[in-house]
Amino acid sequence: MRLDEETGIQVEQGPSADRRFEGRVAVVTGASRGIGLAIARRLISEGARVCVTARKPGPLEDAVEQLGGPGVAVGVAGRADDAEHRAHAVRATIDAFGRIDVLVNNTGINPVYGPMTETDTGAAAKVFDVNVIAALSWTDEVRKLGLGHHGGAAIVNVASIAGLRPSPGIGVYGASKAALIHVTSQLALELAPRIRVNAVAPAVVKTRFATALYEGRERELAAGYPLGRLGVPDDVAAAVAFLASDDASWITGQTLTLDGGVGLGGAIG
User: 20 to 30 Å CA-CA from 95: which of 48, 107, 175, 219?
Assistant: First the structure.
């Protein structure tokens, strides 16, 4: 067991003897905290070396230190929708670790809340730029510098259960995640057999990003989940690690729903 620093919940941790990513290198975007940091931590615990990205240099430096320092992790700060940042991050990964085997598109934003019909179109465009176009662009960037050249290459996109059906208040965000799910299956078709592409679609996970969805009503919300709790970042990290590993070598184009069973009742929460 390990104490999740962000949520204070004791969570299961993958066995340290499981070295599925020994000798492999991953890029994890949006990874200074929350789900992205948990994914990077899980991959490193299984033998990977990782490049993590985020907008702010300070938190990113802290994340690299938490992950074990420059021997296993490097950080490159910048905006996910900035082409120069993406090129710099991918080149820095190659320079530090010599290759790239896994890309995790985790960066996501949701700066608007309310009906889609009342959403500023500029804000909506920004959501799609970061949540969809940037993921497609990261994929192109890592392909240009060798993803798929060593075998066992995988891309995992972090979508959302809001991309599977309508969700009150976060319609634009959900629409962007629905697009990302479609991008996942399209890329899986186009990049096979050298690169597998899958996605995860979490329900409410206890992170700072999702605070507005559960703050002040966590017990009430969790009661609607058959498994009796909201998600924590390590729940997502475990699923991402599976899809990125050779254990999932015959899986591509799929979106794995991570929702504690809440979707069984037809509601998102």
Answer: 107
- Indicate the domain borders of the chain: 22-201+233-260
Token output for 136: 């497609």
Q: Which 8-state DSSP code applies to residue 98?
A: S
Q: CATH class for domain 22-201+233-260?
A: alpha beta
Q: Which residues of the chain are under the pLDDT cut of 50?
A: 14-17, 267, 269
Q: Annotated active-site positions, please?
A: 173
With a CB cutoff of 8 Å and minimum separation 6, the contacts of 248 are 154, 196, 198, 242
pLDDT tens by residue, 166-221: 989 999 999 999 999 999 999 999 999 999 999 999 999 998 877 777 777 889 98
| Dist. CA 102–CA 186, nearest whole Å | 18
Strand ranges (E), 100-254: 102-105, 153-158, 195-202
pTM value surpassing 0.85: yes
Question: Distance between CA 124 and CA 101 in Å, rounded?
Answer: 32
Tokens of 94: 């190659």
